[in-house]
Structures are given as C-alpha cells and as structure tokens.
Amino acid sequence: MSYHKILTIQDISCVGQCSLTVALPILSAAGQETCILPSAVLSTHTAGFSGYTVRDLTEDIPAITDHWEKEQIRFDAVYTGYLGSTEQIGYVQDIIRRLSAPGGLAIVDPAMADNGRLYPAFDGAYVEAMKELAFSADIILPNITEACFLTGMEYREQYDEAYIAQILDRLTAAGAKTVVLTGVGYREGRTGVLVQEGGQRRYYEHRRIAKGSHGTGDVYAAAFVGALLNGRDAYDAAVIAADYTVLCIERTQGDADHWYGVKFEVALPEYLRMLGL
Ligand code: PXL
Predict the structure, then answer these.
(1) Of 74, 100, 180, 238, which has the highest C-beta tally within 10 A?
(2) Ligand 1 neighbour 42 (Cβ under 6 A)
C-alpha cells in the first residue's frame, strides 16, 4: 500500500459535485491522505446555475502557506484544479516551490474552459498565468479547449490525428512534460484520452455517452491522481480514470434532475476494485 500526503487546491462548490467535493472523497477512497486548500467558496458551480455566490479566498493563502512551512508540512504531490483568481496562480506556484517533498509531483488540471469557451470567471490574463503553472508542472490534464488556450491553437469541433499531434507538439515545445489530453474522439460514439509520457504517445479509446455531463473533468482528474499515487504509470492511471468516469456517467443517465454533476459516489466500489484495493 502506497500512502502519500497530497494537497489538492481547487474551489469548494458547495452544491454541484465538482472540484473539492469530488477530489477529496475520491482521493481518500484511493487510500491517500488528502489535504485541501479551498481556492474559493461558491454556492454552486458556474456551469448552468445562475445567481451563484462566490467568496474568493486568495488573500488567505499566503498566511496558510507560511503556517504550513513553519510546521514543516511537506506534500508528496500538489494537484490543482479550478482556481479562484489570476493572482492565486502565483501563490500556487509558491506553494509548489516551498512545500513539495523531495521528488514531489505537481499535477495541474488547467480547469478553465470547455467546448471552445473559457468558463465565465476567467479572461486572457488568467490564461497567461495558467500557462506558467501548467508548463512548470510534471503532469497536466487539459481537455482540447484548454490545450488550445494554452497553445494558441484554433479550437475545432471536427479534427483528425494531425490536429491532435500539432496540439501535443505545441504543448511540448512550450515546456509541458507528461500530458493527459482528455476528450479526444475520432469516431462517432467514441472518445478517449491521449497520454504523452517520456516521448511516447498512447491513445485509449472508449465509449462516448452523448449527454454532456458537468464535473466529469474533475472526477477524471481526481481518479487519475488516485491511481497514479497507487503506483500506476500515467497511461494505466488514465485508463482507470476513463473507465471509472464512464461508469459514473452511466449511473447518472436517465435522471434528468441530476444535470449538474455525476453520481460518482455509487461507482467508487468499482474504482477501488480497478485499483486492487
Ligand atoms: O468542473 C470545473 C469547475 C469547478 N469549479 C467551478 C466551476 C467549474 C466548471 O464550470 O464552475 C466553480
């Protein structure tokens, strides 16, 4: 059993099954000590609800960081998701520098965009700051939209393998190390994930469930990190995360009232079986 101390930095959307309310249970179930740093507290996530409240916690972060450093707290991995502000990205880089254990991993999900568009809270300055964080990380997990914002590539709904290869080439040229590019599908009814690690590219294709589901990027990233910390390589972790995410979507299908997230909790036993736990 490989037990690690991980810090995950993302918002708390109190309702909506995304970010910390997904990452904390999944990583804990994966047998990892999970420390959290909330980037902001929102009444709900921003994708589909209106009138949500937001409390940005950026100004709390420097004192929290100083306290942890004074207590000699160090993390085997820092995993970031949706962050509260552009300024906060700088603080996150500071945390990675000061509080990573020797050999500690930085895993960045540049959660800022989907379907060709930035999420409502973000702008060009946020994208520029995210480039710095993403290109200094050990592993990034962008979807195609986020990869386009990180590289300046034009976003396309229809694409081929050459287009995806160009995105990966540009990410590499900009400094990306291991890349897990999600939502890559070349055929009707199929999607998949392309993993670039140590100069090798491997593709895992799986079923695409037509209904667009909120929060699946966060479920995917947390399940990936949990598998990685249980000793899987990036490709195997990407496959486990994909299979688990598909199960979560299947368990949610048919419940029209549950449009805002996926019922990831009910598929946790299968996830643990995939991890051999
Ligand atoms: O799932 C990504 C995410 C996380 N947190 C908040 C969001 C979103 C996506 O819209 O709004 C607050």
Answers:
(1) 238
(2) yes
Strand partners, 86: none
pTM, two decimal places? 0.98
Percent of the chain scoring above 70 in pLDDT: 99
pLDDT tens digits for range 103-130: 999 999 999 999 999 998 999 999 999 9
Q: Which of 19, 122, 220 to mutate to test the pocket of ligand 1 (most atoms within 8 A of CB)?
A: 19
Residue 215 CA, closest ligand 1 atom number: 1
Give the DSSP H/E element, type plus range, for residue 54: strand 54-56
Q: Is the dihedral of CA 11, 15, 21, 22 positive or negative?
A: negative
- Does the C-beta of 149 come closer than 6 Å to ligand 1? no
Q: Looking at the structure, give the CATH architecture of the domain made up of residues 5-275.
A: 3-Layer(aba) Sandwich (3.40)
Domain boundaries, the chain: 5-275
Neighbours of 52 (CB within 10 A): 17
